[in-house]
Amino acid sequence: MGADRVFAYGAAAGLLGDLLLGDPRRGHPVAVFGRAAGAVERVLWRDHRGWGALHTAVCAGGAVALGAVAQRVVRPSTAASVALTAAATWAVVGGTSLSREARVIGRALEAGDVEAARARLPHLCGRDPQALDADGIARAVVESVAENTSDAVVGALVWGAVGGVPGLVGFRAVNTLDAMVGHKSARYRRYGWASARLDDVAGWPGARLTAVLAAVAGSDTKGAVRAWRADAAKHPSPNAGPVEASFAGALGVRLGGTLSYGGRVEHRPVLNGEGRAVEVADIERAVRLSRRVGWLALGASAAGARAVGALLRGSLSGRAS
């Protein structure tokens, strides 16, 4: 069986496993990686870009190398290769956990328990919950669902289609490093620069595919495309901009505006200014859109891997003849 089919079957099984099981409460591979990256940081940290780049290379490179070794070991067995791909996909995607956290907050808001929603929000994003009212919390959840659909699902599938198991684990390693050290705090402004820039590069294709699929799967395709074209470039993140703008247009809501991170206030541009303000019910709509985008991304990634595999096989057969 070709690598394209191994990826398609394994990724489908892994995505189904995530849907049925979600993330393990203990011993999650991403958490294990995070602890290892933290240990490397304690050894290497200097307030210098070069040392941060070394940290990124050691951690992300180590994850890719481990994935490559595992893939090579199981290559003689098709069943083992599919199983490894399924396990890696299940380990790196987080669509079910994303949906669960968003829905927990949504239920709290529906019940009028804003304090419970504030207490739960840090499980989903880094906003300052005390600075948000119910509508602000709902908007933060919708934005986080949109961005994490790309980071936690689509991006991993894209890189899995490109690089198999090393691509899957490598993307999640880069994304995790960005979350750990890629923010602009005093400690990480220089040390985390390499991780943040690598995450921008790795996230680029997945973010664009997410934006396309949100437009296809949403209730307002024209609105999603219009908001993406008009507003995505205004966002400070090159990857969150297209995703959040497309989700905003697809859902018919306004995203962006003033927000607070770690006591630092940011005034971000409004995305899809023609839309209405986010309501609590939009959380469930965003979750359902995220689900549809995830499954469409599996199909698109598998189709892309199959097309590339067919081209490579045709090229090799042409050379042999």
From TrEMBL:
The keyword Transmembrane helix applies. Converts cobyric acid to cobinamide by the addition of aminopropanol on the F carboxylic group. It is found in: Cell membrane. The keyword Transmembrane helix applies. It comes from Streptomyces hyaluromycini. Keywords: Cell membrane, Cobalamin biosynthesis, Membrane, Transmembrane, Transmembrane helix. InterPro entries: Cobalamin_biosynth_CobD/CbiB. HAMAP family: CobD_CbiB (MF_00024). It is a multi-pass membrane protein. Its main location: membrane. This is Cobalamin biosynthesis protein CobD. NCBIfam families: cobal_cbiB, PRK01209.1-4. Belongs to the CobD/CbiB family. Pfam families: CobD_Cbib. Transmembrane segments: none annotated. Pathway: Cofactor biosynthesis; adenosylcobalamin biosynthesis.
